Amino acid sequence: MIIPIYGYGEPVLRQVGEEISREYPNLKEIIANMYDTMYNAYGVGLAAPQVGLAIRLFVIDTEPFSDSDDLSKEEHEQLKNFKQTFINAKMLKEEGEEWGFNEGCLSIPDVREDVYRNERITLEYYDEDFNKKTEVFDGLIARVIQHEYDHIEGILFTDKISMLKKTLIKKKLQNIMEGKARPDYRMKFANKKGR
Predict the structure, then answer these.
(1) Burial of 36 (0-12, 13-18, 19+ CB in 10 A)
(2) 48 closest CA partner among 66, 64, 25, 78
(3) Residues paired with 102 in a beta bridge
(4) Which stretches of 7-98 are DSSP H helices?
(5) What confidence tens digit (pLDDT) does each residue in 91-150 have?
(6) Cα gap 67→64, rounded to integer Å
(7) How far apart are CA 11 and CA 174, in angstroms?
(8) Per-residue pLDDT for 157 more than 80?
(9) 76 assigned to a ligand binding site
């Protein structure tokens, strides 16, 4: 089921997510709805706070990135086949060179900015069957994970850009809060009832 994505200004986007157990109510349904909602909005990641739940859960499918011409065959295959649910994720390490990439966010439609992140991360998490894992990720997959991980920490990608760029996008952010943004997917806006 496709559910509304919470827009910039919604308080839940600034909350640190709480850890959950395998008994969390309707967990399988929530995860399925998050994937449906992400695919409907042509996203590659979606965190629970973006659908109004202040819990430590996010989903990722990097397949759309696999079409880029700038990829090696190995990178293409890696991105094409990476679909994962992350529960109670904990960042253990961020390392390597910081590199810039033009990021966007389903909660902040029509705003894109270059964000610098570490190239490699070590993450501890549970998958959707509550198997505990510790894995190292790099490249675009690490970047998408870092972006979604920020969401469960109450951080948005716009927090990571310069003051000048924040000033330049201030009006766009205000428009999102007032419900004036018109993405082609359902949203819930901070100062206006969702469509």
Answers:
(1) middle
(2) 25
(3) 114
(4) 27-40, 73-80
(5) 999 999 999 999 999 999 999 999 999 999 999 999 999 999 999 999 999 999 999 999
(6) 6
(7) 14
(8) yes
(9) no
Residue that is written with structure tokens 């529960």 in the block: 87
Q: How many CA atoms lie within 13 A of 162 on its CB side?
A: 4
Confidence class of residue 75 from pLDDT cuts 50, 70 and 90? confident
Consult the annotation and say whether 42 binds a ligand: no
**CA distances to 7, 74, 75, 106, 127 from 70, in Å:** 31, 12, 9, 24, 30
Q: Does this model's pTM top 0.85?
A: yes
Q: Ramachandran region of residue 103, left (φ > 0), alpha (ψ -120 to 50) or beta? A: beta
> Which two structure tokens, joined as six digits, stand for 24?
């969390």
CA distances from 61 to 17, 107, 130 (A): 21, 17, 19
Residues labelled as active-site residues: 148
CATH of domain 5-188: 3.90.45.10
